[in-house]
């Protein structure tokens, strides 16, 4: 599923408007079967935004098991995934990617989107399969974070009593979901990964995921750091008012040098420091590495490396001259405030300026 031919040249937005026949996401009548559901308010909020649908105008069926097709449609719709940036050479069909799909079904176009966004769905994907908590959690986290091995590298230990029941390739996603407040353990510390997930449970995870990605913030409660030298703007919570800037530099080391590693590239490292930081009680900085576009391209080609981490920095944004990146394992020691910084970074706070 990693390499696919794009199949037509018409505008994806024009041709692939999301079909919702039989599964309308924009219900207008309040659901009447949520009174005993703990996540009632979250489901109603999602309904009001047109992000979840019922089985009829007024019934959500919260305790019904989520099918694979419903799960994919829910993730695609809630996260706003689309094909606007893709041109095809001929009209795509769901069966181009998944043999068991039905091209006329309400879910068909969501499967096309999921395939082209590389959500990792297998070729033998069965739309009618009942999904487990593990399956839905893994797909949701892949859609949120991509194939990101930093799940495992940045997380503090999370004790899951029934960890032995979790498939190895889903463990990182489940741990990340718990850490980020998207999913939770029960009172006994179990996740129940192989239990079928209900529609209410899936909707609640979607709500929590959107809250994590887009934390509520009033524009007036924000502080902005603007760097005109390199051309970027970084939006901070108002609690960071009075921040300081720590200027340093990164160094790129040679690879495969018989004389030993030597510094072959360098650039600016700008750290935004919380106003409550002290030498006695340091807090997590927000570090930003600045690369020229040429330096960044050479780093991606492994012409030099930075630090000892097995992965390199991750791009935050760029302008015409510079790429701004987050160092690998920047919060490996988990200092005070590291989770707040991770939440800030998840809100896409950095923007290029000219």
UniProtKB/TrEMBL annotation:
Question: Which part of the chain is the SLH domain?
Answer: 26-89, 157-220
The residues the entry assigns to the signal sequence are: 1-26
| Pfam families according to UniProt | SLH
Record flagged with keyword Glycosyltransferase = no
InterPro entries linked: SLH_dom (IPR001119)
Going by the UniProt record, its keywords in alphabetical order are: Signal
Q: What is the designated name of this protein?
A: S-layer homology domain-containing protein
- Organism, per UniProt? Paenibacillus aestuarii
Classification from the root reads:
Bacteria, Bacillati, Bacillota, Bacilli, Bacillales
């Amino acid at each position: 599923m990693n390499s696919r031919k794009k199949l037509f040249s018409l505008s994806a937005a024009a041709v692939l408007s999301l079909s919702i026949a039989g599964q309308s996401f924009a219900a207008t009548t309040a659901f009447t079967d949520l009174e005993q559901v703990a996540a009632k308010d979250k489901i109603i909020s999602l309904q009001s935004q047109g992000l979840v649908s019922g089985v009829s105008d007024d019934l959500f069926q919260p305790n019904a098991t989520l099918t694979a097709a419903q799960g994919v449609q829910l993730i695609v719709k809630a996260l706003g995934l689309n094909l606007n940036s893709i041109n095809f050479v001929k009209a795509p069909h769901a069966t181009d990617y998944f043999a068991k799909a039905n091209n006329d079904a309400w879910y068909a176009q969501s499967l096309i989107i999921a395939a082209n966004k590389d959500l990792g769905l297998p070729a033998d994907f069965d739309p009618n399969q009942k999904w487990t908590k593990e399956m839905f959690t893994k797909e949701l986290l892949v859609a949120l974070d991509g194939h990101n091995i930093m799940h495992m590298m940045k997380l503090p230990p999370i004790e899951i009593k029934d960890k032995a029941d979790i498939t190895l390739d889903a463990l990182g996603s489940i741990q990340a979901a718990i850490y980020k407040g998207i999913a939770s353990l029960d009172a006994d510390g179990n996740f129940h990964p192989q239990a079928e997930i209900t529609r209410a449970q899936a909707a609640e995870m979607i709500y929590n995921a959107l809250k994590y990605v887009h934390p509520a913030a009033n524009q007036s409660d924000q502080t902005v750091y603007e760097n005109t030298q390199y051309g970027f703007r970084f939006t901070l919570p108002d609690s960071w008012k009075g921040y300081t800037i720590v200027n340093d530099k990164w160094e790129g080391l040679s690879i495969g040098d018989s004389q030993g590693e030597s510094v072959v590239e360098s650039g600016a490292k700008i750290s935004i420091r919380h106003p409550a930081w002290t030498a006695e009680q340091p807090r997590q900085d927000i570090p930003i590495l600045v690369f020229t576009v040429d330096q960044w391209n050479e780093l991606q080609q492994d012409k030099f490396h930075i630090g000892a981490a097995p992965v390199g920095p991750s791009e935050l944004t760029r302008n015409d001259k510079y790429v701004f990146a987050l160092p690998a394992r920047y919060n490996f020691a988990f200092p005070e405030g590291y989770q707040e910084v991770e939440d800030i970074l998840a809100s896409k706070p950095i923007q290029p300026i000219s």
